[in-house]
Amino acid sequence: AQRVTQPEKLLSVFKGAPVELKCNYSYSGSPELFWYVQYSRQRLQLLLRHISRESIKGFTADLNKGETSFHLKKPFAQEEDSAMYYCALSPWGFQKLVFGTGTRLLVSP
Amino acid sequence: GAVVSQHPSRVICKSGTSVKIECRSLDFQATTMFWYRQFPKQSLMLMATSNEGSKATYEQGVEKDKFLINHASLTLSTLTVTSAHPEDSSFYICSARDRRRRGDLYNEQFFGPGTRLTVL
What we know:
The structure holds two protein chains of two kinds.
Chain A: E1 3-5, E2 10-14, E3 19-21, E4 24-26, E5 32-38, E6 45-49, E7 60-61, E8 72-74, E9 83-90, E10 98-99, E11 103-108
Parallel strand pairs in A: 2-11
Antiparallel strand pairs in A: 1-4, 3-8, 5-6, 5-9, 7-8, 9-10, 9-11
Chain B: E1 4-7, E2 10-13, E3 19-25, E4 32-38, E5 44-51, E6 57-58, E7 67-73, E8 76-81, E9 90-97, E10 110-111, E11 115-119
Parallel strand pairs in B: 2-11
Antiparallel strand pairs in B: 1-3, 3-8, 4-5, 4-9, 5-6, 7-8, 9-10, 9-11
């Protein structure tokens, strides 16, 4: 079975501080991993995916297969980054997404 | 582009009645749509995968007779909660995959704004 774990329910940092949102997964095959973000009163939207190896809004995430992790990082947090962040896994060959429980990021001025 | 709408955004119904929720892809065709359920302060749980023109695939533990899914066209999927009870009260979210996307973009899902169902 597939499982995504986000150990922190809430992460509170000050503006300009580095941010790391943790995500660990459990899956025997080769998954596709995503980070989705939900800003206040908005719908869920894709932030980034491990396949693309891109940086979006200053965020990056590297898939570490040895540690089965896909942590989301940003060197300098901004107030507008405050949102709910969900890590999600798509099992190879399937279209569905398995979501973690989410981490609320709160960036204070 | 890639906008998904849901209707209604909020519905309150009496116990025992049935409620239909619509999910539409507004500017793209979706061969596959997904229905999720989200309890307060909890994650999204996939209920079922809806494929156009065929029966939906339900996740383990989801009652298919309780949650009827119809995907009659490439832009519309409906979820009907039959004989609703207070424990069915939840936030229901749909997502859709753009049939044109290939390669790295193949698996991206576009989410609707959600429908809050309250059963009295």
